Amino acid sequence: MGMGVEFLKGHGTENDFVVLPDPDGVLDLTEARVRALCDRRRGLGADGVLRVVRPDMGPWFMDYRNADGSIVEMCGNGVRVFARYLVEAGLVPTGEFEIGTRAGRRQVVAHEDGTVTVDMGPARVTGASTASVRGAAFTGFAVDVGNPHLACVTDTPVAELDLDDAPGHDPAVFPRGVNVEFVNVLGDGALRMRVHERGVGETRSCGTGTVAAVAAWLHGTGQRTGKATVDVLGGQLSVVVEEETATLTGPAVLLARGELDQSWWDSLT
Ligand SMILES: N[C@@H](CCC[C@H](N)C(=O)O)C(=O)O
């Protein structure tokens, strides 16, 4: 290894991340550096950054950043990729362990087949609200999965939506912004979803978004618990919603590792 900053690249259902191992918490991860890393032309390209930190007390901590550099609470696909990194780096044994996030500790199970199950904590439906896409209104439910979501179950085929721009939302309901999901019901327990993520744009998957989608679908049909598969642009995730918590299962892939050029890193402040 040379002197550059170590990185890995990974994805969960094509929601992709740069992983930065930083056990001693010495990296100065500025907004400018996150933006440059995530840029698909002048950087490595990713939807977000996962910095891997070992606190003095407690489990390994996932310091998650959106591609625009914003620091937010939780990332369901990210936590699976983070878990895969910890296992492959030999920092935890395959099986069950905890990961710290800004939304609290999350129990994960890294399976032998490469998939990871995450206990996501409760998915709380907190009310109803409306998203707009090119003048069309979509009603949905506000769902708190540690981070904020507006999940809209709709008969409009999600493939037809133009999500290049952020959907409109009510800032009084979502003062810190929101991730917006559009959801089609394909059959009992089978959903299709597209998502526009706060701080990123449209992504090919959002783990917390799939949990919000299933919680909203169940809520709208008068059910408190249930399970569903959710087809996203980048694959399929499985979600189980229980009274007190929800679980998310899906793939987690690491595909590259290397080091960032130190002078490039230093040129960004
Ligand atoms: N892609 C993530 C969610 C990342 C955070 C989100 N953009 C936010 O700002 O809350 C996931 O898989 O959950």
Oligomer description:
single chain
Helix content: 10-25%
Helical region count? 4
What is the chain-wise order of helices and strands? EEHEEHEEEEEEEEEHEEEEH
Count of beta strands = 17
Hetero groups in this structure are: the ligand N[C@@H](CCC[C@H](N)C(=O)O)C(=O)O
Structural category is alpha+beta
CATH architecture descriptor of the largest domain: Roll
**Separation of termini?**
24 Å
How many distinct folded domains? 2
Strand content: 35-45%
Mean pLDDT reading: 97
- Low-confidence segments, ≥5 residues, pLDDT <50? none
Q: Just give the CATH class of the largest domain.
A: Alpha Beta
CATH homologous superfamily caption of the largest domain? Diaminopimelate Epimerase, Chain A, domain 1
CATH topology of the largest domain: Diaminopimelate Epimerase, Chain A, domain 1
Give the radius of gyration: 18 Å
Subunit structure: Homodimer.
GO molecular function: diaminopimelate epimerase activity
Protein name: Diaminopimelate epimerase
Catalytic activity: (2S,6S)-2,6-diaminopimelate = meso-2,6-diaminopimelate
Q: How does this structure look, described?
A:
- This protein has two domains: 5-120 and 252-267, Roll (Diaminopimelate Epimerase, Chain A, domain 1), CATH 3.10.310; 124-243, Diaminopimelate Epimerase, Chain A, domain 1 (Roll).
- It is 15% helix and 45% strand.
- The chain has helices at 31-38, 76-88, 207-220, 262-267, and strands spanning 5-12, 15-21, 48-53, 61-66, 95-101, 104-110, 115-121, 124-133, 136-144, 148-153, 179-187, 190-197, 201-203, 226-232, 235-241, 246-251, 253-260.
- Strands 5, 6, 7, 8, 9, 10, 11, 12, 13, 14, 15 and 16 form a twelve-stranded mixed β-sheet that branches. A five-stranded mixed β-sheet has the order 4-3-2-1-17, with helices on both faces.
- Helix 1 (31-38) links the parallel strand 2 and strand 3 (48-53).
- The mean pLDDT is 97.
- The structure holds the ligand N[C@@H](CCC[C@H](N)C(=O)O)C(=O)O.
- The ligand N[C@@H](CCC[C@H](N)C(=O)O)C(=O)O binds next to helix 2 and helix 3.
- Residues 15, 66, 72, 75-78, 147, 179, 197-200, 203, 206-208 line the site of ligand LBFN2T5F.
